[in-house]
Amino acid sequence: MTSRQIRIVLSTHYFLYFGILGIYLPYFNLYCYHLDFSGFQIGTLSAVRTFATALFPLIWGILADRYNIRRPIFIMAVIASTTLWSFYLLTTDFTLMLLITAVYGIFYAPIISFLESFSMDLLDTRKKDYGHLRVWGSIAFILVVMGVGRLIDIYSASIILVLILGGSIAQSLLSFTVPGVPPQENKQSFSASARIFLNRRALTFIFCAFLMLVSHGTYYGFFSIHLEQLGYGGAFIGFAWALASIAEISVMVGSARIFSRFRLENVLVFSFIAAAVRWAILAGAESAGLILFTQLFHAFSYGSFHVASILYIDKLAPPQAKTLGQAVNNAATYGLGIMVGFFLSGYLFETIGAPKLFMLCGALALAGGGLLFFEKATRKQGV
Question: How far apart are CA 178 and CA 69, in angstroms?
């Protein structure tokens, strides 16, 4: 398979993965809300899925790197998660949906971290071009989130279940086209390689990244519900989500130039500050213009942060633990971080409301940025 063909395959996988996410993130919780689930129940469903995303990428990542079976696990995970999603079509009972969510999460968990590690390995010396692949995910998110918002206005939120199943089936068929990566020469044992993630630099980054995604819990879990409570319809909600993805594309497309000019850690700290500002403004925003303005900050609070995180963890990880490195990053952020954010938001949403939750999120993002800056400064001083 040529380099161009590999890029097409990976870009298509990002397109499908984030296209599906463009249906799930804005609308699945809204679907549950229309089923009359409480805020706590919605938060619990989201948190259970993300708990699996926190735990199982590590397990699958260890198996993949230890036995050089990344590709077979990836194919199995995509097919199994697709099959399990179909069970959502059979019930609206909270307990059964909770069970489906828990089992589904086990197999859904490693997909994105494995895809990121495929990209890092196959890009080889051109890792800074990662954004050119990942941007197709953002394009898909934009197209899907706007189209589905209109469909929900015409039909109902339940249409998202079928749409996600269709996208998952397409990704299952495409999973067989992902090329394998030759195993690395074992200059050191896998266990010795994995211990790199226990040093101060790695642990600080992982904890700060965790705080960043905790701060996104209210946005990912309750932003659509918040907008509906403010009186906005599905079309506006879809456009708001799409605008955020349009903003992040600027970072994805320009990633090679950005990361050739600025150090990864500086980009990360700036991203934390941008997130803090975003949540603080959103806490008081009610007008359409101001809400949409805050969505432009997604270029930094998600776009630059995400690309910098992928490159940073790849830089820290030794060759024998590349899959585990991306799995650790994904588990700490889109797993544990989002899980805690969902639980926190679900618990507090009905008591303190979205505005105060967004203020809390801003404080968490600012704390993460401050801690990362402090670690960088003390490391330079040799402390």
Answer: 13
Q: What is the distance between the alpha carbons of residues 314 and 89, in angstroms, rounded to a whole number?
A: 38
pLDDT in tens, 166-200: 999 999 999 999 887 666 555 555 555 566 777 88
In whole angstroms, give the CA distance from residue 213 to residue 204.
Answer: 14
Q: Which helix (H) or strand (E) holds 27?
A: helix 3-34
**Nearest of 298, 307, 300 to residue 264 by alpha carbon:** 307
Q: How far apart are the first and last CA of the chain?
A: 48
Structure tokens, 237: 């909600």
Q: Say if residues 131 and 6 touch (Cβ distance below 8 Å).
A: no
Enter the tokens of residue 330. Answer: 């994904």
For tokens 């797993």, name the residue.
335
Among 28-37, 40-49, 199-208, the range scoring the smallest mean pLDDT is 40-49
* Residue closest to 217 by CA, chosen among 289, 275, 152: 275
Using only the alpha carbons of the chain, give its radius of gyration.
20
* 329 SS3 class: helix
145 with 245: CB under 8 angstroms? yes
Angle formed at CA 341 by CA 23 and CA 323, multiple of 5 degrees: 75
- What residue has token string 């213009």? 289
Which domains, from first to last, does the chain contain?
A: 3-180+190-380 (1.20.1250.20)
Say how far apart CA 203 and CA 177 lie, in whole Å.
35
Alpha helices in the chain (DSSP H): 3-34, 39-67, 70-85, 94-108, 111-123, 130-154, 159-174, 190-194, 200-214, 217-229, 234-253, 255-261, 264-284, 288-295, 298, 305-316, 322-330, 338-380
Q: Nearest 10 degrees: CA dihedral of 36, 38, 39, 42?
A: -70
pLDDT in tens, 94-123: 999 999 999 999 999 889 888 988 888 887
Give the Å distances, CA to CA, from 294 to 219, 243, 281, 355: 11, 10, 7, 14
